[in-house]
Amino acid sequence: MKAMVCTRYGPPEVLELQQVDKPVPNADEILVRVRASTVTAGDCEIRSFKFPVMLWIPLRLFFGVRKPRLDILGQEFAGEIESAGEGQTLFEKGDRVYGATGLKLGAYADYLCLPSNSAIARMPEGLSFEEAATIPTGGMNALFFLRKARIQAGQKVLIIGAGGSIGTVAVQLAKNSGAEVTAVDSKEKLDMLLSIGADKVIDYRQEDFAASGEAYDVIFDVAGKSPFLKTVNSLKPKGIYLMGNPSLAQLFRRLLPTKKGDRKIIAGAASYRAEDLRYLNKLLEEGRIKPVIDQSFPLEQLREAHHYVESGMKKGNVVITN
């Protein structure tokens, strides 16, 4: 089968199209014919190994010292069940499914083999493979964090880095909860953010969200680049700061007391569960959230897709088709 293999750590040019062995499912696994995947910021980080210096040693040991141990990247997919192991009962051949691979990776290939109890669900009716592939990673991350905030109707929510795969779902989920949503990102993404429900938008290059003195019930920093004190001080006294992609410094600062009030600071890593995908299915079927696709590239042009994502211009999701 065809696969884009990450031959070493480095720029997108380290990705090479190769013929590799087609995986064979074990008794509790399914084999998926991948029809679409995406390029996430996480894929680019693993490929380039752009992590904080303090994490280099443990992450090299985990991912591989000289090159990724799992050299076919790709964290989310949509496709059809090609075959299923005899020991699993959740799926049948021909089922249209989508899901997240987590750290097993492997979606940049014609076929993908995963345990049947992974974060996989049948696709909603009427959704294309390309649309479905954009939902798992961004959707489950947005759902994980916003559930912790327990957003109420009428609350003010600020989403920093709203124009990516997580942020675009977060905007829609917050609106579904009845919040007034302010989305922060670059100028090129603001019209798209308004089109999916944002009430207000801020171009971070031209305006500091803290300068207006506006206070928010919930701030969700998807990008993980907002200064800690400035962000915390933009919360209401009982506000909640969701750190979706925290730096080491931010993780440390969350342990320190804030100046006033009873603000809550939440950081962590999202758990990927099939039941969360099924919940997102319902929202998709009801039209309460919709996929946001910027561009699509064939698998053979994965290098170009990685370059585009790293440019910072991506609006929503970049899809890879097989």
Structural features, described:
- It is built from 10 helices and 15 strands.
- Helix 5 links the parallel strand 8 (156-160) and strand 9.
- The protein folds into 2 domains: 2-135 and 291-321, Medium-chain alcohol dehydrogenases, catalytic domain (Quinone Oxidoreductase, Chain A, domain 1, Alpha-Beta Complex); 138-267, NAD(P)-binding Rossmann-like Domain (Rossmann fold, 3-Layer(aba) Sandwich).
- It has 322 residues and is α/β, with parallel strands linked by helices.
- 26% of the residues lie in helices and 27% in strands.
SSE inventory with pairings:
Layout: E1 2-6, E2 15-19, E3 29-38, H1 41-48, H2 56-63, E4 76-84, E5 96-100, E6 111-115, E7 120-122, H3 129-133, H4 136-149, E8 156-160, H5 165-176, E9 180-185, H6 190-195, E10 200-203, E11 216-221, H7 228-232, E12 235-243, H8 248-253, E13 264-267, H9 274-285, E14 293-298, H10 302-310, E15 317-321
Parallel strand pairs: 8-9, 8-11, 9-10, 11-12, 12-13, 14-15
Antiparallel strand pairs: 1-2, 3-4, 3-6, 3-15, 4-5, 5-7
Helix pairs in contact: 4-5
Domain Enoyl reductase (ER): 10-320
InterPro entries: ADH-like_N (IPR013154), ER (IPR020843), GroES-like_sf (IPR011032), Lipid_raft_assoc_Zn_ADH (IPR052585), NAD(P)-bd_dom_sf (IPR036291)
Protein name: NAD(P)-dependent alcohol dehydrogenase
